[in-house]
């Protein structure tokens, strides 16, 4: 469905607006004070999310950043080291929160579009010694945002997880787009989640709900997360109104992600055929299309597309990101390509 604004907004899958049916579900939601545990809609969402991911419990949070950060806080002690891929959202886009909120150091591992090897992890581990920070937690991201929506191959995940377990490290998955990974690979979310102690999932990206994420894990771990959520001011009251949007999205918007992936592929193929574009269509596995432009600056392309009713995100001097989502139709992709072609040829 095209955006109600008529603009083809490919900057992010966070820009979707709730559908009329989702708004209806939100308006009708049964609510209560969730800090007292009285909101039945939040309870349903947390139970449903935990069940989908095969974990004991879940906690609803206002944003993915808060979900990741309370999980890091709950897994670590100040002075610990967490191991993340160099382009991870946790490291790159969360305002230095691991240092500020958990007092942990980030050790960055080199990756290929967000995917690193068990050998890279092994090489970065610190032996127990009073001089060293304690290697404590490994964080992975699936799909990988800055990696262009890359899906972690399951065998690679298994091998990294086995290495982490061997060294008694904990494992957290930033699964903001785990729904996309599951649809693209045909591997259920819970099969990925089984390798991790905790998983963060977002309802406001591809699923198209306006607000919210959840962290899942053991009952004990989630109780600890609830305490840190409270500490950060993320415990909310009659929040069933927004949880209802997330529940609606889980029921109605997961399977349709395949449409977003098909639209992204079509966009990638169209762009790759233009001489001014550098893009490998084979690398587009989900809903994110990253490409480089040769004839003009990325910021200039974005600016020139704006009056043509198309929005993209300039990520660097020559790098552009275009993301497909609930408010982009197959016809919108053809329009976007038609708008871009004269500028990139
Ligand atoms: C969007 C995103 C998040 C969370 O973002 P919020 O804007 O805080 O909800 C976390 N991880 C990844 C990989 C993301 O893409």
Task: Give the second-level CATH assignment, the architecture of the largest domain.
Answer: 3-Layer(aba) Sandwich
- Please give the alpha-carbon distance between the first and last residues: 29 Å
Which distinct ligands sit in these coordinates?
pyridoxal-5'-phosphate
Helicity level, as a percent range? Answer: 40-55%
Tell me the overall shape. globular
Q: How many runs of DSSP E, i.e. beta strands?
A: 13
Oligomeric state of the chains in view: single chain
Query: Strand count, sense and closure of the main sheet?
Result: 7 strands, mixed
CATH H-level superfamily title of the largest domain: Type I PLP-dependent aspartate aminotransferase-like (Major domain)
Structural class: alpha/beta
Features:
single chain, 345 residues, alpha/beta, Aspartate Aminotransferase, domain 1, Aspartate Aminotransferase, domain 2, 2 domains, seven-stranded mixed sheet, four-stranded antiparallel sheet, 13 strands, 41% helix, binds pyridoxal-5'-phosphate
């Amino acid at each position: 469905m095209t955006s109600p604004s008529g603009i083809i907004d490919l900057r992010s899958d966070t820009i979707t607006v709730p559908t009329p049916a989702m708004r209806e579900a939100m308006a009708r939601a049964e609510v209560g004070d969730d800090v007292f545990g009285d909101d039945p809609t939040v309870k349903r969402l947390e139970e449903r999310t935990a069940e989908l991911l095969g974990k004991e419990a879940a906690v609803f949070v206002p944003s993915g950043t808060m979900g990741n950060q309370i999980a890091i806080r709950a897994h670590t002690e100040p002075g610990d080291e967490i191991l993340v891929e160099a382009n991870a959202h946790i490291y790159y886009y969360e305002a230095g929160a691991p240092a500020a909120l958990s007092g942990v150091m980030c050790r960055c591992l080199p990756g290929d579009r967000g995917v690193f090897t068990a050998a890279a992890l092994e090489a970065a581990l610190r032996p127990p010694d009073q001089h060293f920070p304690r290697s404590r937690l490994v964080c992975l991201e699936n799909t990988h945002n800055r990696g262009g929506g890359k899906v972690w191959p399951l065998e690679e995940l298994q091998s990294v997880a086995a290495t982490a377990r061997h060294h008694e490290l904990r494992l957290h998955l930033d699964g903001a787009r785990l729904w996309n990974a599951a649809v693209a690979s045909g591997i259920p979310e819970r099969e990925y989640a089984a390798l991790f102690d905790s998983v963060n999932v977002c309802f406001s990206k591809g699923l198209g709900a306006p607000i919210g994420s959840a962290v899942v894990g053991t009952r004990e771990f989630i109780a600890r997360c609830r305490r840190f959520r409270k500490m950060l001011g993320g415990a909310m009251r009659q929040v069933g109104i927004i949880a209802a949007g997330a529940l609606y999205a889980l029921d109605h918007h997961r399977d349709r992600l395949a449409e977003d992936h098909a639209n992204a592929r079509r966009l990638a193929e169209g762009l790759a055929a233009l001489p001014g574009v550098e893009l490998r269509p084979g690398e587009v596995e989900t809903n994110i299309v990253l490409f480089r432009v040769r004839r003009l600056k990325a910021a200039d392309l974005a600016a020139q597309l704006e009056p043509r009713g198309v929005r993209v995100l300039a990520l660097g001097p020559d790098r552009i990101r275009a993301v497909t989502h609930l408010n982009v139709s197959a016809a919108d992709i053809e329009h976007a390509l038609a708008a871009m072609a004269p500028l990139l040829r």
